């Protein structure tokens, strides 16, 4: 098996091996992956962070050895926890990286190494407490909606939840329906707490949307842009439209401890 690591701020992950294919996710700086299939211009990979598979452009692939892969996989992991941080290298110009980027094995001075390349990070890389979650999530307000996006410059609903929970050191699955499969059910909305996740389904009963409850009767979510709207037992109510836009299906409380298997 072959392995790789992302050494760019963001790499688009596509549903098919084509520039015209749908972008279904993004890989953030420092994330490692296994190579499942190789073609002349494209590589099918599985992101180790959330076990999501996608195609990436071979030109953006940085191969690493199995030894390096295992080292990066087991090194203490820190994440960039501000909207953007800066990576300095000896061989290239400084590079802005997004919130959630992986900084495996970084020391107290911001130095770390990947595949023989030395890096220095300047920015915040400290996990936040659950009590800080609501204010932290507001950093994303007005970020534009982007299907498959995972940064302040374009993000989808489940990508937003991933980055918010990554800031606390908790990795969530990639898609909303996958995220809904973990955690503890909250049976009634009046029993919900800030930090709980609310899920919404379509007319076929499939979960297609997720948002973070920030306080009683409010949630933050990505719909057109990252916004805060009203939430009740029916779903999301948009005051500017004077209508319900999403039907509530369930509420989950996510533990920050590893999930039971």
Structure commentary:
The chain folds into two domains: 2-122, SH3 type barrels (Roll); 130-253, Alpha-Beta Complex (endopeptidase fold (from Nostoc punctiforme)), CATH 3.90.1720.10. By secondary structure, it is mainly beta. The chain is built from four helices and 22 strands. The longest helix is centred in the middle third of the chain and has 10 residues, at 157-166. The strands form six sheets. The chain has a six-stranded antiparallel beta barrel. Strands 6-5-4-1-7 form a five-stranded antiparallel β-sheet.
Secondary structure blueprint with pairings:
Blueprint: E1 2-5, E2 10-14, E3 23-28, E4 32-38, E5 42-47, E6 53-57, E7 62-64, H1 66-74, E8 77-79, E9 84-89, E10 95-98, E11 102-104, E12 111-114, E13 117-122, H2 133-137, E14 150-151, E15 154-155, H3 157-166, H4 176-179, E16 184-185, E17 197-201, E18 207-215, E19 218-223, E20 225-231, E21 235-238, E22 243-253
Keywords for this entry:
261 residues, mainly beta, SH3 type barrels, endopeptidase fold (from Nostoc punctiforme), 2 domains, 6-stranded antiparallel barrel, 5-stranded antiparallel β-sheet, 4 helices, 22 strands
Largest sheet: number of strands, sense, barrel closure = 6 strands, antiparallel, barrel
Strand content: 35-45%
In spatial order, strands of the major sheet run 17-18-19-20-21-22
CATH topology title of the largest domain: endopeptidase fold (from Nostoc punctiforme)
Task: List low-confidence stretches.
Answer: none
Element string (H = helix, E = strand)? EEEEEEEHEEEEEEHEEHHEEEEEEE
What's this model, at a glance?
This protein has helices at residues 66-74, 133-137, 157-166, 176-179, and strands at 2-5, 10-14, 23-28, 32-38, 42-47, 53-57, 62-64, 77-79, 84-89, 95-98, 102-104, 111-114, 117-122, 150-151, 154-155, 184-185, 197-201, 207-215, 218-223, 225-231, 235-238, 243-253. It is mainly beta and 261 residues long.
């Amino acid at each position: 098996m072959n392995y790789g690591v992302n050494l760019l701020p963001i790499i688009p992950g596509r549903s098919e091996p084509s520039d015209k294919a749908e972008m279904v996710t993004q890989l953030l700086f420092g994330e490692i992956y296994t190579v499942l299939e190789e073609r002349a211009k494209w590589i099918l990979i599985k992101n180790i962070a959330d076990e999501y598979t996608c195609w990436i452009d071979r030109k953006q692939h940085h191969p690493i050895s199995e030894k390096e892969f295992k080292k990066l996989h087991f090194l203490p992991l820190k994440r960039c926890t501000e909207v953007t941080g800066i990576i300095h290298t000896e061989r290239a110009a400084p590079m802005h990286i997004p919130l959630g980027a992986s900084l495996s094995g970084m020391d107290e001075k911001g130095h770390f190494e990947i595949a023989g390349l030395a890096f220095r990070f300047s920015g915040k890389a400290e996990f936040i407490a659950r009590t800080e979650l609501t204010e932290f999530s507001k950093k994303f307000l007005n970020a534009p909606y982007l299907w498959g996006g995972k940064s302040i410059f374009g993000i989808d609903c489940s990508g937003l939840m991933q980055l918010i929970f990554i800031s606390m050191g908790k990795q969530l699955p990639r898609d909303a329906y996958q995220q809904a499969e973990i955690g503890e059910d909250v049976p009634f909305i009046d029993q919900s707490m800030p930090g709980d996740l609310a899920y919404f389904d379509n007319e076929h009963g499939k979960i297609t949307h997720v948002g973070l409850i920030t306080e009683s009767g409010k949630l933050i979510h990505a719909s057109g842009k990252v916004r805060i709207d009203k939430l009740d037992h029916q779903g999301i109510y948009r005051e500017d439209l004077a209508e319900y836009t999403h039907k509530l299906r369930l509420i989950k409380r996510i533990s920050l401890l590893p999930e039971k298997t």
